[in-house]
Amino acid sequence: MPKIVDHELQKEKVAEAAWRVIRKNGMEQASVRNIAEEAGLSVGSMRHYFSSQSELYMYSMKLVSERVNLRIKNIAFTGELLTDIPVLVQQILPLNEETIPEMEVWFAFVVKSMSDPSLAVLRKQVDDDMRQMFVMIIQALTDQNLALPDLDYDIEIERFYALIDGLAIHAVLRPEVLTKEKIESAVNRHLQSICRP
Amino acid sequence: MPKIVDHELQKEKVAEAAWRVIRKNGMEQASVRNIAEEAGLSVGSMRHYFSSQSELYMYSMKLVSERVNLRIKNIAFTGELLTDIPVLVQQILPLNEETIPEMEVWFAFVVKSMSDPSLAVLRKQVDDDMRQMFVMIIQALTDQNLALPDLDYDIEIERFYALIDGLAIHAVLRPEVLTKEKIESAVNRHLQSICRP
Q: Is A79 left (phi over 0), alpha (psi -120 to 50) or beta?
């Protein structure tokens, strides 16, 4: 058992080295050789963990979404939707030293997935999960009679989800313009705008 | 004069070849050699147009924003804000065969700009211009007394801008989910939600 744990931990360390290379030098420089060097491993020993660059990329991209899912799982929900929903969506927003690098790497993999079919499959799965989160948010607001009547659910799901991803990319690119405070105000304002007064 | 025009036209053709390479095979494959091949030019003759890969990237990224600006300049505005604003923001959304490839390439350059300081400068300029467009939209709605009273302008600017960029990236990644009709409904619904009934 400890060996399996070590193996998984080591894979995560390699993936985190891949994240650092991608953030510092771009996807173009994220070769197995450069990632091995960043991780302090020989190219040969990388084969213990990943059989190909493609497998390493897949694992490194997936690790981002797993970290997000883990944070969501660990939220201590209060049961008050208007408190819980902002906390929930904050887990997918780049607001601190852990989540800003994650989001940068995620966008790099998303763009890479446009010309990489394996990564595209993973990206679609994560996109489906994310959209499902907004389906549940709008559904919960409606069930608790908090949502405005006559909302077009499909449109509100897309609008909330797009807002959060737009804020995420703007926060990564212009943290000096789109501050943490502005992001939180925008999320709260959006929630308020789809709810009864 | 014709020579200068030809030279500019040829540069645009090379940049469009760069777009195609980036879309097909990713930024990693967008070497001067591969772009020359796609453009039907020798690597040697590429030097007539661009002195370096960096200059070629800069020009190719800038061309995307110039195409957007040209479309905006050519809009026949009606003077009715609630008609004109959706038409305006549609120019930065990937809704057709011209604008979908543009947006894909734009996102690839945005990610590249995270590890490329020259592209980062250009990206910030375009981001400033885009944000200014939303400043003007919210200002115009307020001046014409169409906006809801008591809006927090700064937040509404960020919220509208983030929504549009979020819709743009979702439309590029999942056109089968986020259809043209849904995008247009989301934009109209957003506009309605910040305006008086």
A: left
Q: Please tell me the distance from the alpha carbon of residue A65 to that of residue A128, in angstroms, as a whole number.
A: 12
Chain segment B56-100, per-residue pLDDT in tens: 999 999 999 999 999 999 999 999 999 999 999 999 999 999 999
Q: How far is A76 from chain B (nearest CA, A)?
A: 27
Q: Which two tokens stand for residue B169?
A: 């990236």
- Decide if B21 touches A, using CB distance below 8 A: no
In terms of DSSP H, where are the helices of B74-177?
81-90, 99-113, 117-143, 153-173
Using a pLDDT cut of 70, give the percent of chain B over it.
97
Q: Please, which residues 121-160 of chain B have a Cβ atom closer than 8 Å to chain A?
A: 123-124, 127, 131, 152, 154-156, 158-159
Domains assigned to chain B = 1-51 (1.10.10.60), 58-194 (1.10.357.10)
Q: Does B170 touch chain A (CB under 8 A)?
A: yes
Q: How many CB atoms lie within 10 A of CB A147?
A: 20
Note whether B131 contacts A161, CB cutoff 8 Å. no
Q: Could you report the predicted ipTM of this complex, rounded to two decimals?
A: 0.95
- A161 inside 8 A of chain B by CB: yes
Q: Which residue of chain A is at minimal alpha-carbon distance from B108?
A: A111
Structure tokens at A66: 């797993």
The pLDDT value given to residue B5 = 67
CB B117 within 8 A of CB B56: no
Task: Say what the alpha-carbon torsion angle B132, B138, B144, B148 is, to the nearest 10 degrees.
Answer: -170
Nearest CB among A124, A155, A165 relative to B182 is that of A155
b/e per residue B69-103 (b: at least 16 CB within 10 A): eebbeeeeeeeebeebbeebbbbbbbbeeebbbbb
- Closest chain A residue to B161, measured at CA: A166
